[in-house]
Write a structure and sequence with these properties.
- Strand 12 and strand 13 form a beta hairpin.
- Helix 5 packs across helix 6.
- The protein is of the alpha/beta class.
- It is elongated.
- It is built from 19 helices and 18 strands.
- The strands form three sheets. Strands 1, 2, 3, 4, 5, 6, 7, 8, 9 and 10 form a ten-stranded mixed beta sheet that branches. It has a six-stranded mixed beta sheet with strand order 15-14-11-12-13-16. Strands 17-18 form a two-stranded antiparallel sheet.
- The longest helix is centred in the first third of the chain and has 15 residues.
């Protein structure tokens, strides 16, 4: 079976139609179909009957000049070496990606041997379950089985070969589906393809990208391009679609940072032959729901997004609304955040870098250990905490003096010439450090010596968690004064932001008596930085743990002595009395009748 394609015009649609088979062609097709059914059970036979009439075939009805919106259309026409489109659910990005594979096949350079355009696209997921549950159904909406030869079954690799023609000659379109499993390098060894599609790229390993870049542009073989201009001898692409990723996800690092994309592209282009088109890494970001220009709304019901928002919030996953509906980069929660009620990133995270004020001293909170952490801050106004930065190396196990040296380097760059007023550390940092030659040296002492300031233990004197948590709550809930909250975090403090939003969470702990209680989960590295912040804020609290905000608030609430009732409050009833009262009856202390 072959398909005729109308003349390809940039920005215009093309129509696909079944070619006339000639005398006897229809009967031959029927005979071949019957032969294919032999030996199949009923379910397998039904699955093969995926050929609909030309008028009812969804693939034939597709038009390339209908797009969800301008961002999706720009993505459709892109021939960059690595491209990605990010959008909310229902934005039409996956459908656009599938349709763009047909466009890529049509625009494939013709073989100089036989004139055939041979195009192969490889769809990759981690498991075959993912392929069959998401990628393959999306593919079949655009490329029904009946348009070509479908080989392979559920749980196995699949190949779909479609042969068709347009006025410029024949085209051989091949789609392959493969799961890489636990060993991406081994799974992709020897693969030769034109394009690779990473459906839901944010769920995959970055290794797929780094290995895959060497697998594209390897089909067809080089002799089919012999004699063509050098810029036409290279035709390969890695194409990704994704929802808004976590900030730690490789998709965020590769696609959201324009300077990083350009640096990577320039580095990759240096190895190319002279005259070859430079490598391009392009990113297309669709607006989220509620933003101007939100795409594909014309194809969705008015309740599509409101229903999803309601269901996510009902399930207690309001964080998914930002990521999947609003198309905002966020953090994936690993539990219930400890400061879920008090923290609001729109209030407590600055929009731009917080400037260092040389007129104010610098205060530092530290958490000890091989995974040490430091939080650097200044105080402005009445306990307006400005968190300037954080120092934490979760992938390194650092000795105390090495951590102190790195902290000093950071301070010299972030706060040049700063006067370090104080540093407060974990009580455990006051114990002898096993990595020290001096038996009297402690982690706090060694870090302080290397960094150039004195570190004292946090003011409460014990490591009870409740006063530490209340110190942060007090700052988060402090009234806004002069437009500033009690705690304002620099946007570069990724560990603090991630801790507040998603990874400093509650867990259950069983004590020696068998009782269960809620405590912060220390398993995630963000807990180290959050501990540093706690010791920092405790440094300005009273010895009993009372915050300066509460102390000031209490003074405001107190009235004149003759207006105070029980514990300094207003009188409980009757006329307020002052002075010494006599006539107290020891036998009737509560004045009962």
């Amino acid at each position: 079976m072959s398909v005729n394609i109308g003349h390809m015009k940039r920005g215009k649609g093309v129509s696909w139609s079944l070619a006339h088979e000639g005398a006897g062609g229809a009967q031959a097709s029927v005979d071949a179909a019957i032969a294919d059914l032999e030996g199949l059970d009923a379910k397998e036979a039904i699955e093969t009957l995926d050929v609909s009439s030309p008028d009812g075939n969804s693939f034939l009805a597709l038009r390339d000049d209908t797009f969800p919106g301008p961002i999706a259309e720009e993505f459709y026409w892109s021939d960059g070496d690595v491209i990605a489109i990010q959008g909310p659910v229902g934005s039409g990005k996956t459908t656009t990606l599938m349709k763009s594979r047909r466009r890529r096949a049509i625009m494939m350079p013709r073989s100089t041997i036989d004139g055939v355009r041979r195009y192969k696209v490889l769809f990759i997921r981690e498991t075959y379950r993912q392929l069959w549950s998401t990628s393959i159904p999306s593919y079949l909406e655009t490329f029904p089985k009946g348009l070509g030869k479908w080989s392979g079954g559920r749980g196995d690799p699949v190949t779909h070969v479609i042969n068709f023609e347009d006025q410029d000659g024949p085209i051989e379109f091949t789609a392959e589906f493969m799961a890489f499993g636990d060993d991406p390098i081994a799974a992709m060894r020897g693969i030769q393809t034109t394009d690779i599609v990473l459906n839901e790229a944010d769920t995959m390993l970055v290794m797929i990208l780094t290995v895959g870049i060497g697998r594209i542009d390897r089909f067809p073989s080089r002799e089919h391009f012999a004699g063509l201009p050098i810029d036409l001898q290279s035709y390969g692409q890695i194409c990704c679609d994704l929802n808004a990723p976590d900030e730690d996800n490789w998709c965020f690092k590769v696609f959201h940072d324009k300077e990083e994309r350009e640096r990577m592209a320039k580095e990759l282009s240096m190895a190319l032959p002279v005259g070859t088109k430079p490598i391009e890494i392009l990113f297309f970001e669709q607006p989220g729901y509620g933003m101007p220009g939100c795409e594909n709304l014309q194809n969705l019901s008015p309740s599509y997004y409101p229903r999803q928002i309601a269901s996510m919030q009902l399930a207690g996953r309001g964080d998914m609304v930002d990521r999947l509906v609003r198309n905002k980069v966020t953090y994936l929660r690993v539990g219930e955040p400890v400061f879920k009620r008090e923290y609001n990133k729109r209030i407590h995270v600055a929009e731009d870098t917080i400037p260092y004020d040389p007129r104010l001293p610098v205060l530092i909170g530290l958490d000890q250990g091989f995974k040490g952490a430091a939080v650097i801050a200044q105080l402005a106004g009445f306990f307006r905490w400005r968190i300037l930065g954080e120092v934490h190396y979760p992938n390194d196990r650092l000795f105390a003096h090495v951590f102190g040296q790195r902290l000093k380097e950071y301070l010299d760059e972030r706060c040049p010439g700063a006067r370090i007023e104080a540093g407060w550390g974990d009580m455990a940092g006051e114990h002898g450090a096993s990595q020290s030659a001096d038996e009297n040296a402690t982690w706090n002492l060694m870090v302080g010596r290397a960094a150039g300031f004195h570190i004292r233990p946090q003011v409460i004197g014990t490591n009870r968690i409740q006063p530490r948590l209340e110190a942060i709550r007090a700052a988060l809930e402090a009234p806004i004064e002069a437009g500033e909250p009690g705690l304002l975090i620099d946007p570069d403090c990724k560990f603090l932001k991630r801790g507040f939003e998603a990874r400093y969470v509650w867990t259950d702990e069983i004590d020696a008596s068998g009782d269960k209680r809620k405590v912060p989960n220390k398993k995630f590295t963000e807990a180290n930085v959050m501990d540093g912040l706690q010791y920092l804020l405790l440094g300005q609290h009273r010895g009993d743990g009372m915050s300066p905000y509460v102390a000031r608030l209490s003074d405001k609430r107190k009235g004149p002595p003759d207006m105070r009732g029980h514990k300094g409050g207003p009188p409980l009833s009757g006329k307020p009395k002052s002075g010494l009262r006599t006539g107290w009856d020891i036998l009737n202390p509560y004045g009962a009748n």
